[in-house]
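worker-03 picked up job from queue 'complexes'. Input manifest follows; two sequence lines, order preserved.
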Amino acid sequence: MMRITVCLLAVFSFLLAATPQADAAGGKELYSFYCAQCHGVGGKGDGPNVTKDMPVTPRNFTNAAEMNKLSNADLKNVIIDGGPALSKSPMMPPWSKTLTDKEVDALIKHLRVLCKCKGK
Amino acid sequence: MVTWKRTVSVVSVFAFILAANGMSWADAAAGKKVFKAKKCGGSCHYTKGPAREKTIADQKKKKGPELWYAGSKFQKEWMAKWLQDPKPIRPLAFNSLTKKNPGNHPKLSGGDAANVTDYLMTLTSKDVKAGVIKPKKNPKGKLIFMKKMPCSGCHQYPFKKKISGGMTGPSLVGAGKRLNPDWIYAYMVNPKVFKPVKIMPVFKGLLKDKDMKNVSAFVASFK
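worker-03 finished. Artifact:
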């Protein structure tokens, strides 16, 4: 009985430990694929689409002071429904039909890694 | 005598049709051989559908766009010219956010280009219905493309005699000569059939069908 409990505990703790890591890696991969084209690989808002024709400057995710003003729910809204969800530019696309809820959550985790901040 | 003459002309018309069909088959078959001999397939362009990509890693492995629906996507005349003088369509190298498109796509001779074009035009998709979109500069399509949706953030397009727009999508300058207008709409409506994993957002479900038609007609009007 004791052995089974130990085994179960080991399995659960492994799952708990493994999940956030898997999400974090997924978030980085998703970010590099979808977001970096405008927000830059390092998140400074300097992706290749930022040319003289871009009417707005994409958010700099490394700016902790600005990123702290946004809650995770704000980030989720803007990723899902696009810039206008936060009264920002429609240049930020709505990703609701592209990304799953889980992928959006993984992205938000990665944004918090980039800003080294927790948000409000 | 008259009947005899008529028979001869009917027979010659049939012979001509048969020869023409035979020629066109021969061209496509020759084009397929050239495509294989020049190693256009493999890691650069796959030609057998349906779409294979399931993950971001699958998409990143590709060195060039898939061509399994090339006959539905491109215009024949454009393709025959482009294969002889392949100028970059994407400002950046395929799958890169940092490297400029080196513009090093292999060139084909006129004959090879015509044959490869005939071959690629045989690669079609049942999801592209003909005759739905007529190219048209329409104000609703323009408003969506330029203001309501972020299309111009990633795609270059002709604007006031200049080129405007972003870098990561294929350029839409000359899209009216390059793309089949019906493919643009089919891609908007059913993007995952053609590109299951891509950096462009899915707009199906966000734009009304009528608006997807308007945007497609607007893009198809780009010179």
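worker-03 released lock.
Chain A touches chain B at residues 29-30, 33-34, 36-38, 41, 47-49, 51, 53-54, 82, 90-98 (CB under 8 Å).
The CA atoms of residues 59 and 92 of chain A lie 10 Å apart.
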